[in-house]
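Re: your question from the hallway

Yes, I did run it. Sequences:
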Amino acid sequence: MKKLEIIIRPEKLEEVKELVNSKGVFGMTVSMVSGCGLQKGRKEIYRGTEININLLPKIKVEMVVKDGAVEDLIEGIVKVTKTGQIGDGKIFIYNVEDAIKIRTGERGDSAL
Amino acid sequence: MKKLEIIIRPEKLEEVKELVNSKGVFGMTVSMVSGCGLQKGRKEIYRGTEININLLPKIKVEMVVKDGAVEDLIEGIVKVTKTGQIGDGKIFIYNVEDAIKIRTGERGDSAL
Amino acid sequence: MKKLEIIIRPEKLEEVKELVNSKGVFGMTVSMVSGCGLQKGRKEIYRGTEININLLPKIKVEMVVKDGAVEDLIEGIVKVTKTGQIGDGKIFIYNVEDAIKIRTGERGDSAL
Amino acid sequence: MKKNFMVLLAIMMIVLIPSAVFAADEPTAASNAVAINTVWTLIAAFLVFLMHAGFTCVEAGFTQAKNTVNIIMKNFMTVAIGVIAFYFIGFGFMFGDDVLGIIGNKGFALIGTEGMDFGIPLHAYWFFQAVFAATCATIVSGAMAERTKFAAYLLFTVFVCSITYPIIGHWIWGGGWLSKLGFIDFAGSTAVHAVGGFSALVGASMVGARIGKYSPSGKVNAIPGHSIPLGAIGVLLLWFGWFGFNPGSTISGTTPDIASIAVTTLLAGSAATISSMLFSWIKYKKPDISLTLNGCLAGLVAITAGCSAVTPNGAIIIGLLAGVLMIYAVEFFDKVVKIDDPVGAISVHGICGGFGTIMVGFFAKDGGVFYGGGFAKLGIQTLGFAASAAFAVIMAFVIFGVLKAAMGLRVSDEEQREGLDIGEHGIQAYTNISASENFVELEL
Amino acid sequence: MKKNFMVLLAIMMIVLIPSAVFAADEPTAASNAVAINTVWTLIAAFLVFLMHAGFTCVEAGFTQAKNTVNIIMKNFMTVAIGVIAFYFIGFGFMFGDDVLGIIGNKGFALIGTEGMDFGIPLHAYWFFQAVFAATCATIVSGAMAERTKFAAYLLFTVFVCSITYPIIGHWIWGGGWLSKLGFIDFAGSTAVHAVGGFSALVGASMVGARIGKYSPSGKVNAIPGHSIPLGAIGVLLLWFGWFGFNPGSTISGTTPDIASIAVTTLLAGSAATISSMLFSWIKYKKPDISLTLNGCLAGLVAITAGCSAVTPNGAIIIGLLAGVLMIYAVEFFDKVVKIDDPVGAISVHGICGGFGTIMVGFFAKDGGVFYGGGFAKLGIQTLGFAASAAFAVIMAFVIFGVLKAAMGLRVSDEEQREGLDIGEHGIQAYTNISASENFVELEL
Amino acid sequence: MKKNFMVLLAIMMIVLIPSAVFAADEPTAASNAVAINTVWTLIAAFLVFLMHAGFTCVEAGFTQAKNTVNIIMKNFMTVAIGVIAFYFIGFGFMFGDDVLGIIGNKGFALIGTEGMDFGIPLHAYWFFQAVFAATCATIVSGAMAERTKFAAYLLFTVFVCSITYPIIGHWIWGGGWLSKLGFIDFAGSTAVHAVGGFSALVGASMVGARIGKYSPSGKVNAIPGHSIPLGAIGVLLLWFGWFGFNPGSTISGTTPDIASIAVTTLLAGSAATISSMLFSWIKYKKPDISLTLNGCLAGLVAITAGCSAVTPNGAIIIGLLAGVLMIYAVEFFDKVVKIDDPVGAISVHGICGGFGTIMVGFFAKDGGVFYGGGFAKLGIQTLGFAASAAFAVIMAFVIFGVLKAAMGLRVSDEEQREGLDIGEHGIQAYTNISASENFVELEL
Ligand SMILES: Nc1ncnc2c1ncn2[C@@H]1O[C@H](COP(=O)(O)OP(=O)(O)O)[C@@H](O)[C@H]1O
Ligand SMILES: Nc1ncnc2c1ncn2[C@@H]1O[C@H](COP(=O)(O)OP(=O)(O)O)[C@@H](O)[C@H]1O
Ligand SMILES: Nc1ncnc2c1ncn2[C@@H]1O[C@H](COP(=O)(O)OP(=O)(O)O)[C@@H](O)[C@H]1O
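Structure:
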């Protein structure tokens, strides 16, 4: 099992959800995060004083999937989330040692 | 060291905290997330138009523990968080390569 | 590639950002979390009734970096975030199997 | 309000002319006096209307975010339903010709009102009374918040504004038996607040506590409200509205009483704010904002009965006591009798309403115990409060009993956990993210 | 407002003395009557002013958090710009001497106002009219929210408050052709609300829908507002302000009409609240708070034309119908014509404004169809509404057309996605964390 | 307010009868005039009361979420403490018989007030003055927000409302030396706003800047407020309340001045809103909402002194200038003298209060420089402002100095970082999640 940790622009979440559904993956966990990278934020002015906003809103999608599903998913996600502008985000891949489905107690791949 | 990443229903957090305390684990990090899985959300109507709410509020609890503590904790957590209804959540287990306690600089198991 | 997962006091975020910039690391993802550990929270009183607040606000910083950069970063981060009081936080290190930069499709170290 | 015969007589003496003589031709001193009284009463009524915004904010702020839509809907519908119920039914029971000292008999839908004379045009008087009526019901919504079925609450409102409140109002202000006894409840510590508060007591106890309020072990848990700023804005709007509620209850702008009533209202509210802040500071080590805000309301509720009868110093003392009494009352209901009242409505309106009514017996410049008036007035005040509260309790018991049997008062535990906003209204109060072409709704 | 000649005559008959006779020496009945009228008009105007807070809250609550600063700025600037534009230009067009029944010709910057007599001091009259004027423009901001350029909106406001509204206002209240025909629009269902609503219709359709509102496939998506409590506070403030808007439009506190107008306003709002709640409950299975809040406003808009002309029962019926009509209108614009109106301004103000104006033809006690008055009044009401709406549409078309050509109406898609707060004002409405020596700003 | 002898004389000439003659029997023109004045003054006072809600919202919105409970408590307690302090002490110093032009000597706790005549019932006059008094102290809370000890602030409030404000108020409105000189400060640009603003200047500099406001390197950091909507609602409520503050200061509803004062107040606020928006747009590239909201207040503060003395055009010019001046003042205090004022209170109330007072010397229709009146008036205006500001500064210096020595003004750095809500009140303003049987409190 692998975990895909996908950092995307907020407005791309809906498309990722649709893609993922179409690939037969059902579970995912989403959170609101802030990020910076090459995209360096922007300057704002508040009451005449500059503020550097260097963390921009992003969405993090976490998905634990079977080993075999990884490559296909990555390809699909890159396709729907890419705009070509900096700030598009990243996908990180981790190994997952085990998974437990609380409702049933199942473990391993069948817990997904 | 292993990390348990536990996705639960929001109302189960308090019980998890109590359980974990009773097992002698002290550290954990909690965040608000949204998730979907088999539980598919619900339809709402706003001003006459349907909205699909397919991400439901969940709580993510992260806990880094010694290798030996994993199985016992899993068992306990499943017990307190299981309702048998879909939407109960998952536990994912990851390997942690190292841990540092910032206050003391200690590393490894003694940093937990 | 390794992921550093750094739990710190909220007021230390700015210093971590500066440090990390100075080390030539550009990407990071930040989220608001709540945590407990040795620091056990506090008691509050609401309308005459006690409440135990045992989850305190923390900031989680996630940074995926090249293997070689890890130790130097840890040292720097510990230096700027340490106050010596309990509640300073932890750094956890995970292995990252792969990374993809969505904008370009690059993978591995060059995706960071 | 007609209050009692004496006030009525006084007003009539001042006016001395039928209200129909409203500047038909050239203005006269008499027609101008009617105009001043009308303008005053209407503006006061507008301020009372705004109290509904105050109640909405207080109750929403002091409850959880997941029930915010529901509590707002309850408060908002209370105005609408209360006004319509009072129009078709309540006003007639309250101000129609007296039947046996108990109930009025005409004026339903403003029909048959010829000959009714309130010193100002009937519509102005009716308007003031109508916005008043709805405040009584709205008190109940706060005490029953976060677990009561929406439909059940709405039906209860219909009954309170049609029957309970108008009947007690008739006793006190409509020429009924209490007004004949000389019972003083100038702007409604009993008629509005205690009636609301004691109805709330019955409602809150019949619907049961919120899940999690009382642990099986008997431990009492706090469930903090989700927005203190909302609660504070609400209290300030209520205080503002109270300057319509109390001074406006003269139904006359040509009496200097309006000024002294404004003064007692201001002083009592201020004194209670200070005493509850200090007392919470001493008792719980830190000045508690939620009790201080409640304390202010407690003082205002307490002065409402006697605002025209006591001195400024009397108002300050009543306020100081009410602020402290309320804190004890909150603890008592919360921890001893274990009736779950999320916003403290029973203590603020019920207990302090009763307290304020009885204090008139002590502090009335004219006839109070402390002014050498003996105990007669005190007796009447106590009787009036007790009878009204008892009637409110009985009525609430009957109405909620029937509703409970017919449809149930309480939402399912699952709905309660998820929040009544989703369960009853299918929407949440706050939406955090919403971006992108294909609309994103995150449930955070 | 001068309303029409008859009302004007009536006021003058009552006053009978030039307003200059304002208690120069000793007060007289006549000078007191002027004082009462002045006090009443000013206080009513203050309440109308507060409606701007109401609009601000409603529009902010019903749109997304990322556009909150922008919508607040629009509403806030509308007051300021509207007042100044009305001072220099609008008032003169509206209330100057009539030219061909179409436009006024003096009183710009309050110059040349000698001889103008409104029964109360000129400044009091002007003040009331000025705060009124800005409400008309503010309606448009809601319908065009979340995608319109700030500068373009501001310029539009200048024109509406200088030209569109004053000219139509002249027709109806300033002695123009509609007032000569006997058109009844007491407090402005047409002059204010329909004019605002139909301008909004043009604006919303010319600026186009928000990204994501209509999927390429034609699917209609909902974009929920970010804060229901804000929206609800706004509606309650608006309702409160409406008691200045309608009863204050008498410009006289010495007429008993102020009371009956307050009553019809209260009843129509309540009835519409109830009907829209029930209808949304039936239609969508749950009582929808956002439609209920809109429903209340729909009832208030609808009664505004006839508030002094209909009976309480008439007001209730008009309110009940408006509450339901508004829901159909919202669906119609949202799903059939696909004009994206985030807050429902077109339906509430445009449609229900027209509906209320026409209903006067049926429900006017004096001359309405249902009171045996035949169809003459109905015809005039329909004509008056149609002419005003048509003129508003044309003006909006011209003004927005020029602005679109000159500077564009719509922000870039990128700015819209990120939110207009950042794009237009460089700041966000809510800041969640901020701690530490080196200031932390998290964009969460 | 008594303002000065001339106004007092004028009022007495109008009234001509002791205020006791308040419709004892049949209403007369004289008794009606008193009633109109009383009704007007009370309603104006109610609006002034609501300004406390405005201040609360503005100060809470423009500061950080972690200090929201604290700032609300400060504003709320200011009303309560201010009123009680003014009752027992302040009123006597302000309006008792004049002693050497400096201080009043009776009327404490409303004792010994026989023979005091303000043209309206004493209680009405007192009420208006009492709600006024508290506004002065509340200005200070904003400038010292986010780092000041709660207890120290409360004690300061007691002194301001008992001593500082009443003494200066006596000079200006109570028959003291400035009123004898003919100093014009109609509704308190100096007496209320500059006194508050200059006290705030001392307080903010003595308590020191918030952690993180100024980096060791000298860099100035911005610390954005947590809720713009709250701030905007606050400004609109303040503007609404200002229509009580300025026109109500006539203490008379029978003078046409109430209308022209309302007009100047509306125009100055609007003009300042526009000028500050445009100026921030030019200077910082985008229209800044927080400066625009402050700009509106700056214009209102500036017109307060001369609202009855200048023309509408004069009001517009004063407003335009104040809007721009305020922005320079904010920059000056923020970046040059480095006094940390989170809400801009010093600039808005202190600087624009002084500016407005002095502008009367130029723009007064009667005696202003621009109306050929020479420089005498200008001199008196400048003197009056300077003397009052100096006295306020000295008093603040003494009071805060003593408090600092006795108990400290500033909370610990740790408390400041965590937020004063937890430190001083043990509770947070917003609670996000709360669910389940065993109550869950997430500190997010
Ligand atoms: N090394 C990293 N570790 C963790 N998160 C990262 C890292 N690099 C980028 N991110 C996340 O990805 C987001 C997009 O990265 P950015 O460099 O701005 O754009 P791009 O990847 O398109 O060049 C960042 O805002 C951050 O949340
Ligand atoms: N494959 C997955 N990867 C990440 N998170 C998941 C995955 N599957 C489920 N989850 C998380 O667990 C929650 C519960 O899952 P769900 O399938 O609805 O219930 P159950 O596990 O009881 O069948 C989801 O809301 C989601 O947050
Ligand atoms: N074992 C753990 N697993 C996950 N998070 C932890 C763990 N231990 C500590 N944390 C996080 O680190 C924070 C600080 O830990 P704490 O024990 O309070 O302080 P310290 O590490 O200085 O002794 C906690 O609030 C929690 O968020």
